[in-house]
């Protein structure tokens, strides 16, 4: 491609509303342009990168035995109502009506459509297992689109769905996809971790893993062991102590209750938070009990954790088997308990009380006295309040012992979710009637898996990991072009003739080349080249008179004067992976 003909405009300054470095650089380098909040046009360079990622995904999906199809983005609401998700998916589901007032949704995902399709097409075990996938635009009405392609309202996604006759078959399908995802993200040049995760709105009955690209801008926290391979999203992560406690139960509290003085109420005017208590009484947050009231569906419960720990709402939600959960507002707390927020405690509380394992182990602590401006000291779990509902209700903390091995501790990282694999089981196939006849002629429900990759999100995740002060540095496998060929002076006949010869020879070898044939100053060309981030660069300047060019790999930044033949050899070796 000749750059003089390329639709490309670079920006010297970052737009003021672009927070993430990937958003800034992709706008400045002319890869994307915003149409509306969370909605983008992929410019020619951006579209080339997107296609490269798509092709990697296709190759690895096909290699894993999956078959590509294409389903409609516009889905009838009846399917979502049949699965039970239409009312519970939330405001992110874009809903609309046609001229006949029939309800539709713009698909954020396609479990309902694919399950109905397979239900109508397959009726015998002889045609199973099967895995189907598509690469298609998805829509989610994000409350706050941000970070460019990382959180948009319209995005490109690969979603795959497996259908098996039994759980053993699902395990095999899941492992094929799990391994394929590793190959995909490795080929895209990502530094990533596969972590245990929660199924969220997709749901399911089996395991699930998220694939996280490590990046400071990531909205997810990953807890990973310093010794073994354990890694989990923070919402799913547990600690060694919690894992060991889960095999037993707490009913009586610490065994040495006799040595703890009796409970004592003391005055704490205006002291509502753990931090304020620490400042006021001089005790450590780890010696305090934090009590928070939640509304889970129609149930109101109190959750008690240690003062230095944070409640994990998802763990509470799963423990209660609830669809929705939220912290009760001050008005609700006062109406239900007669106590202002900040002074709630487990002693004498009439609500059901869920106690975290670590909180249950305290020998004595400080807790709210269920009376305005008062707290208790010397509170002992099991003696002063019941421990009939204990569990792991907190976020794992950095430095906690690993739940999977005896030596490691948990270390935290930030991550961008670029892929997610689920064992759905019969969540959708049972509700939508996807059944087959087994070898004995008996009707059975299909066992499903679901596997998604945020294809457009991968672009931003890669840029977040591959850039420097001058611009993007694309991995060669997904770069828009492999070589940036830059003649310094287009009016110099010798330079242009040599550049044209190199251009033709590289194209003949199947190398993707961008030839900067613009009549611009050298400084402008180099700044644009750095910003665009093509991985290999050949500069044709005055030294071409002696048969030499300047060769540079964008990542290393080291410029070398070498002969044209050697430059060709280096390019071919880099492109072909030698």
Written account of the structure:
The protein is α+β, with helices and mostly antiparallel strands. The chain folds into 3 domains: 21-206 and 420-464, 2-Layer Sandwich (BirA Bifunctional Protein, domain 2), CATH 3.30.930; 245-391, Alpha-Beta Complex (YbaK protein), CATH 3.90.960; 481-575, 3-Layer(aba) Sandwich (Rossmann fold). It is built from 14 helices and 31 strands. The strands form 8 sheets. Strands 3, 7, 8, 9, 10, 11, 12, 21 and 24 form a 9-stranded mixed β-sheet that branches. Helix 1 packs across helix 11, helix 2 packs antiparallel against helix 5 and helix 2 crosses helix 11.
List the helices and strands and how they pair.
Layout: H1 21-28, E1 32-36, E2 39-42, H2 44-63, E3 67-68, E4 74-76, H3 77-83, E5 94-97, E6 103-106, H4 111-121, E7 130-139, E8 154-164, H5 167-187, E9 192-196, E10 208-214, E11 220-225, E12 231-233, H6 240-245, E13 264-267, H7 274-281, E14 289-296, E15 299-306, H8 313-320, E16 325-327, H9 330-337, E17 353-356, H10 357-360, E18 365-368, E19 374-379, E20 390-391, E21 410-425, E22 435-437, E23 443-445, E24 447-454, H11 455-465, E25 467-468, E26 471-472, E27 483-487, H12 493-508, E28 513-515, H13 522-532, E29 536-540, E30 548-553, E31 559-563, H14 564-575
Parallel strand pairs: 3-7, 15-17, 17-20, 27-28, 27-29
Antiparallel strand pairs: 1-2, 4-6, 5-6, 7-8, 8-24, 9-10, 10-21, 11-12, 11-21, 13-19, 14-15, 14-16, 18-19, 21-24, 22-23, 25-26, 29-30, 30-31
Helix pairs in contact: 1-11, 2-5, 2-11
């Amino acid at each position: 491609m000749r750059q003089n003909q390329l639709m490309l405009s670079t920006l010297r300054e970052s737009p003021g509303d672009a927070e993430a470095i990937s958003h800034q650089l992709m706008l400045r380098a002319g890869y994307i342009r915003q149409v509306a909040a969370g909605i983008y046009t992929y410019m020619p360079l951006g579209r080339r990168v997107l296609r490269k990622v798509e092709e990697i995904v296709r190759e690895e999906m096909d290699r894993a035995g999956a078959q590509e199809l294409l389903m409609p983005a516009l889905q009838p609401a009846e399917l979502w109502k049949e699965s039970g998700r239409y009312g519970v998916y939330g405001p992110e589901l874009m809903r609309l009506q046609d001229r006949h007032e029939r309800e539709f949704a713009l698909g954020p995902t396609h479990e309902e459509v694919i399950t109905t399709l397979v239900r109508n097409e397959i009726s015998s075990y002889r045609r199973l297992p099967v895995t189907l996938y598509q690469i298609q635009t998805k829509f989610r009405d994000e409350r706050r689109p941000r970070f460019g392609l990382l959180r948009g309202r319209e995005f490109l996604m690969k979603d795959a769905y497996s259908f098996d006759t039994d759980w053993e078959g699902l395990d095999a399908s899941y492992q094929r996809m799990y391994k394929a995802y590793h190959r995909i993200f490795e080929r895209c040049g990502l530094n990533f971790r596969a972590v245990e995760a929660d199924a969220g709105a997709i749901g399911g009955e089996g395991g699930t893993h998220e694939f996280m690209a490590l990046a400071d801008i990531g909205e997810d926290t990953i807890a990973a062991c310093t010794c073994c391979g354990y890694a989990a999203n923070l919402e799913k992560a547990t600690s060694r102590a919690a894992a060991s406690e889960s095999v037993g139960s707490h009913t009586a509290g610490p065994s040495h209750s006799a040595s703890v003085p009796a409970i004592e109420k003391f005055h704490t005017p205006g002291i509502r938070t753990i931090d304020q208590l620490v400042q006021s009484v001089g005790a450590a947050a780890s010696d305090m009990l934090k009590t928070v009231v939640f509304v889970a569906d129609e149930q109101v419960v109190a959750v008690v954790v240690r003062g230095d720990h944070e409640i994990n709402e998802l763990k509470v939600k799963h423990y209660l088997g609830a669809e929705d959960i939220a912290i009760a507002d001050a008005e609700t707390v006062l109406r239900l308990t007669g106590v202002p927020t900040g002074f709630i405690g487990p002693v004498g509380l009439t609500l059901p009380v869920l106690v975290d394992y670590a909180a249950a182990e305290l020998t004595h602590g400080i807790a709210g006295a269920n009376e305005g401006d008062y707290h208790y000291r010397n509170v002992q779990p099991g003696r002063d309040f019941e421990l009939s509902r204990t569990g792991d209700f907190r976020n794992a903390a950095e430095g906690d012992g690993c739940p999977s091995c005896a030596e490691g501790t948990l270390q935290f990282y930030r991550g961008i979710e670029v892929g997610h694999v689920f064992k759905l089981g019969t969540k959708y196939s049972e509700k939508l009637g996807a059944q087959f006849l087994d070898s004995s002629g008996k009707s059975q429900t299909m066992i499903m898996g679901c596997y998604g990759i945020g294809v457009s999100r991968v672009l931003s995740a890669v840029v977040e990991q591959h850039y420097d002060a001058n611009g993007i540095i694309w991995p060669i496998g997904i770069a828009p072009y492999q070589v940036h060929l830059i003649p310094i002076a287009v009016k110099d006949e010798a330079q242009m003739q040599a550049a044209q010869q190199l251009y033709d020879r590289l194209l003949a070898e199947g190398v993707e080349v961008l030839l900067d044939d613009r009549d611009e100053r050298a400084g402008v060309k180099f700044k644009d080249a750095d910003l665009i981030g093509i991985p290999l660069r050949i500069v044709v300047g005055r030294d071409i008179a002696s048969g030499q060019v300047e060769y540079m790999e964008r990542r290393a930044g080291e410029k070398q004067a070498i002969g044209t033949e050697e430059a060709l050899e280096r390019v071919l070796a880099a492109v072909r992976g030698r």
